[in-house]
Write a structure and sequence with these properties.
The structure holds two protein chains of two kinds.
Chain A: E1 5-9, E2 11-12, E3 15-16, H1 18-34, E4 38-44, H2 51-56, E5 61-66, H3 75-89, E6 93-97, H4 100-113, E7 118-121, E8 123-127, E9 131-138, E10 143-149, E11 154-158, E12 175-179, E13 191-197, E14 210-214, H5 224-234, E15 237-240, H6 242-246, E16 267-271, H7 277-283, E17 288-293, E18 306-309, H8 312-327
Parallel strand pairs in A: 1-4, 1-6, 4-5, 5-12, 6-11, 7-11, 14-15, 14-16, 16-17, 17-18
Antiparallel strand pairs in A: 2-3, 8-9, 9-10
Helix pairs in contact in A: 3-4, 5-8
Chain B: E1 2-6, E2 9-11, E3 32-34, H1 36-52, E4 55-61, H2 66-76, E5 80-84, H3 94-103, E6 112-116, H4 127-135, E7 139-149, E8 152-159, E9 162-169, E10 172-176, H5 188-194, E11 199-202, E12 218-224, E13 233-234, H6 239-253
Helix pairs in contact in B: 2-5, 3-4
Classes of the chains: A alpha/beta, B alpha/beta.
The structure holds flavin-adenine dinucleotide and adenosine monophosphate.
C-alpha cells in the first residue's frame, strides 16, 4: 500500500533550494490533513548536516543518500538512485521543485516508474478519490489545466513561489535514515565535465519575489544599470522582454514570456515594455504588476495594478531613491 | 548518420485561448505553427547532416494539419517525415505520447534524436526525456551547444544560473533550448523539393499498438481561464512626483515593500 508524501530536497553546494523548503512546508500541511507521513529525501555527498534543517521544516523522516556519484546532479545517477528508493518506499506522491534539476529529473524518473507527471504546477489540493489534484498553467499561462493521476506514485514538479514558507521549528525531530545509492553503471553513460555558474548576487528569475524587467524602451544594454540599481535596493531579479533579448542587450536566460521564463513574483515592475500577448503570458500571474511606459495606450497598462505614464529614464531613478528610504 | 527530429504543431503564440462548449481548449480558427523550440531541433538536425552526412527524419503525432508542419521541416532540408495520426491519441498523456513516438522510430537505427525543450502549448517539458528512457539512451535537456565528433558528443546545457558541459557517446537524445542556433527559413527551391519528399502517415495499428495499450496515467479534470486582470490605476503627475507616489503606494497601500 502506497504510503506517505515524499519531497525530493534539492541542494547545490550543500545549500537547500528555497523551493524545496516551500514543498516541505506545504507537504507538512497535507501530511497533517491526510494523516500520511512526510518523507524527505536528500541526495548528494557530505549531506548529513542538512537533515536538521529538513526536519525543522516538518519532515517526519529524512532519507539521506550520500554518494560521491551524487555530488553533482546528473540525470542518470539521480534517476537510478531515486527509482530504487521510490519502489522500495512506495510513497503516494513524490513532489519535486520545478527547477532546472527538477525539469530534467522528473520526466526520466516518471518514465522509469511507468507513471504520469504533472509538471510545473502552481496549485495542489487534497482530494478524497485521487489523493492530490494539481493545477498547472498551459499555453504559458493563458489557461489552466487540472490533473489527477490514475496510478501511484503521483509525481509532480511544483513551480517555485507557489507555496508559502513555514517558520522552521528547530525543536522538531525526524527519523534520519541512510540509504545506499546503488546506481546502475548503465546510468552513468553521460558524464558531467564542467559546471559553470555565472556569478550573480541577484536572485534567480524563477525564484525571485520581485522582478524588475526592461524592454525595448531601455534603448540599449548600457541602460540596464538603472534597473539593476533599483533591483539591488529591493532585492529583485532583473528580466527582459524578447525585444531586448533579440536586440542582444540581454541573454535569453533573462527573457520573460511564452518563449522565455514563466514567472509569478509578488511584484513585477515592467519598464519600457508594451505588454505583447507573449510577454503577458509569462508574467500575467504575478501578484502585483507595476508598469512604467511613456505610451498611455500601451497594453501593459491593462494588466498593471499601478502605472506611470512617463519616461522610464526619469521615473526609475527617483523610484530607486524613494525606495531606498523605505526599505533601508 | 541517422538523425530523428521530433516536432509538435502548436497554436500560434498570438492565439487567444478560449474554451469550447464542452469546456475544452477551442482550436477553431487558430493559426498553427511548429513549436518554436522544435525549429531549433530541426535546424540542428539539418546542420548535423550537412556536416556529417546522413538523413534527417521528422516524426510527429498530430492531426492531418500537422502535415503542414512536417512539410515546413522538409522544406528547411529534412529528408522524410512520419506523421502518427489516430483519433485514439486525442487525449493521450505524455507517457502515452512518448511510448508512441518511441515506437515510431523502432525501425530506424537512430544515432541522434532531437526534440524541443518544451512544447509551448501543454508546457510539459517531458517528451524528449521520456523518449530517451524508453529507448534506453542518455538524455541531455535544454541544450545550448552540440558538438559531435565521430560517435562522441560534447554538449552544453542550461542550468539555473549557469551552464554545464556533458559528454556522452551516441545514440543520444537532446532537447533544444533557444540559443542552440538560428533556424533557417525554407527557400523557394526547398519548398518545391519538399512536396516530393516522402511523408508517411501511420495509425496506432500500423505501429502495432492499440488504444488499450495507452490507458491514461494522468487525467485532465477540467480547464479554466485565468481571471481577467483589471487595469489598476495610473498615477498622475510628472515623472518625479509620480515615482514618489508609486514608492509610497507600494509601501503603504500594497504593503509589498
Ligand atoms: C513566437 C514568438 C514568441 C515570442 N515570445 C516572447 C517572449 O517570450 N517574451 C516576450 O517578451 N516577447 C515575446 N515575443 C515578442 C512579442 O510579440 C513582442 O514583440 C515583444 O514582447 C515586445 O517587446 P517590448 O515590449 O520590449 O518592445 P515594444 O513592443 O517595442 O515596446 C516597447 C515599449 O517601450 C515604451 N518606451 C519606449 N521608450 C520609453 C521610455 N523612454 N520610457 C518609458 N517607456 C518607453 C514604448 O512606449 C513601448 O510600449 C514573441 C513573439 C513571437 C512571434
Ligand atoms: N505530439 C508530438 N509529436 C512529436 N513530438 C512531440 C509531440 N509532443 C511533444 N513532442 C516533442 O517533445 C518536446 C517537448 O514537449 P512537451 O514534453 O510536451 O513539452 C517538443 O518540443 C517536441 O520536440
Amino acid at each position: 500500500m502506497a504510503k506517505g508524501i515524499m519531497i525530493i530536497v534539492e541542494q547545490r553546494n550543500l545549500e537547500i533550494r528555497k523551493v524545496s523548503l516551500e514543498l516541505l512546508s506545504q507537504g507538512r500541511k497535507i501530511a497533517d490533513e491526510t494523516s500520511e507521513p512526510l518523507v524527505a529525501v536528500v541526495l548528494g555527498q557530505g549531506i548529513d548536516g542538512l537533515a536538521s534543517t529538513v526536519a525543522s521544516y516538518g519532515a517526519d523522516k529524512v532519507i539521506l543518500i550520500d554518494d560521491a556519484k551524487l555530488a553533482d546532479y546528473t540525470t542518470g545517477a539521480y534517476t537510478s538512485a531515486l527509482n530504487k528508493l521510490i519502489r522500495k518506499e512506495e510513497p503516494q506522491a513524490v513532489l519535486i521543485g520545478n527547477t532546472a534539476i527538477g525539469k530534467d529529473l522528473a520526466p526520466r524518473l516518471a518514465q522509469r516508474l511507468g507513471v504520469g507527471l504533472a509538471s510545473d504546477c502552481t496549485g495542489m489540493e487534497t482530494d478524497a478519490s485521487s489523493f492530490l489534484t494539481f493545477k498547472r498553467p498551459i499555453y504559458a499561462g493563458k489557461a489552466f489545466e487540472y490533473l489527477a493521476s490514475n496510478v501511484r506514485p503521483i509525481l509532480a514538479t511544483i513551480r517555485p513561489n507557489t507555496f508559502a514558507l513555514a517558520a522552521p521549528d528547530a525543536s522538531r525531530n525526524a527519523e534520519v535514515v541512510k540509504e545506499a545509492a546503488d546506481i546502475d553503471a548503465a546510468d552513468l553513460r553521460a558524464i558531467l565535465k564542467e559546471v559553470a555558474i555565472a556569478a550573480s548576487e541577484r536572485p534567480d528569475l524563477t525564484e525571485a519575489n520581485i522582478i524588475v524587467s526592461g524592454g525595448r524602451g531601455m534603448k540599449g544594454p548600457e541602460n540596464y544599470v538603472i534597473l539593476e540599481a533599483l533591483a539591488d535596493v529591493i532585492g529583485a531579479a532583473v528580466g527582459a522582454s524578447r525585444a531586448a533579448v533579440d536586440s542582444g542587450w540581454k541573454e535569453h536566460k533573462f527573457q520573460v514570456g511564452q518563449t522565455g521564463k514563466t514567472v509569478a513574483p509578488t511584484l513585477y515592475i515592467a519598464c519600457g515594455i508594451s505588454g505583447a500577448i507573449q510577454h503577458l503570458a509569462g508574467m500575467g500571474s504575478s501578484k502585483f504588476i507595476v508598469a512604467i511606459n511613456k505610451d498611455p495606450e500601451a497594453n501593459i497598462f491593462n494588466v498593471a495594478d499601478y502605472g506611470i505614464v512617463g519616461d522610464l529614464f526619469e521615473v526609475v531613478p527617483v523610484l530607486t531613491e524613494e525606495l531606498k528610504k523605505i526599505v533601508k | 548518420m541517422n538523425i530523428v527530429v521530433y516536432i509538435k504543431q502548436t497554436f500560434d503564440t498570438e492565439a487567444k485561448i478560449v474554451l469550447d462548449g464542452s469546456g475544452k481548449i477551442d482550436a477553431n480558427g487558430v493559426n498553427l505553427i511548429i513549436n518554436p523550440y522544435d525549429e531549433f531541433a530541426i535546424e540542428e538536425g539539418i546542420r548535423l547532416k550537412e556536416k556529417l552526412g546522413g538523413e534527417v527524419t521528422i516524426v510527429s503525432i498530430g492531426g492531418a494539419r500537422a502535415q503542414e508542419a512536417i512539410r515546413t521541416g522538409l522544406a528547411m532540408g529534412a529528408d522524410k517525415g512520419v506523421l502518427v495520426t489516430d483519433a485514439a491519441l486525442e487525449n493521450a498523456d505524455e507517457w502515452a505520447n512518448a511510448e508512441v513516438l518511441a515506437k515510431a522510430v523502432s525501425q530506424i537505427p537512430c544515432d541522434i534524436l532531437l526534440a524541443g525543450r518544451i512544447a509551448i502549448d501543454d508546457g510539459a517539458s517531458q517528451i524528449g526525456v521520456r523518449l530517451a528512457e524508453i529507448l534506453n539512451v542518455p538524455s541531455i535537456s535544454s541544450v545550448l551547444k552540440l558538438d559531435i565528433a565521430g560517435t562522441h558528443a560534447t554538449v552544453t546545457r542550461e542550468i539555473d544560473g549557469g551552464t554545464e558541459t556533458i559528454e556522452a557517446d551516441l545514440p543520444l537524445v537532446i532537447t533544444a533550448q533557444k540559443g542552440l542556433n538560428d533556424p533557417r527559413y525554407p527557400s523557394v527551391a526547398g519548398i518545391m523539393k519538399a512536396k516530393k519528399k516522402p511523408l508517411q502517415t501511420l495509425s496506432l495499428a500500423d505501429l502495432g499498438l492499440s488504444a488499450g495499450d495507452l490507458a491514461q496515467k494522468m487525467s485532465v479534470l477540467k480547464y479554466t481561464l485565468p481571471d481577467a486582470r483589471q487595469a489598476g490605476r495610473k498615477i498622475p503627475g510628472d515623472a518625479a512626483p509620480a515615482a514618489q507616489e508609486l514608492a509610497r503606494l507600494l509601501h503603504e497601500e500594497a504593503k509589498i515593500l
